[in-house]
Amino acid sequence: MRSLQSHFTHWRATCSYPTHGVDFRDYVRGNFKDFDIVNYIGDGQCKKVEFVSIRNHKGMHQTAKFWQKNGVWGLHIDSSFADCQFKPSSGSVATEDNFGLYWNTNPKFRCSKDDQSTTQWWFGGHL
Question: Which domain of life is it from (predicted)?
Answer without folding.
Answer: Eukaryota
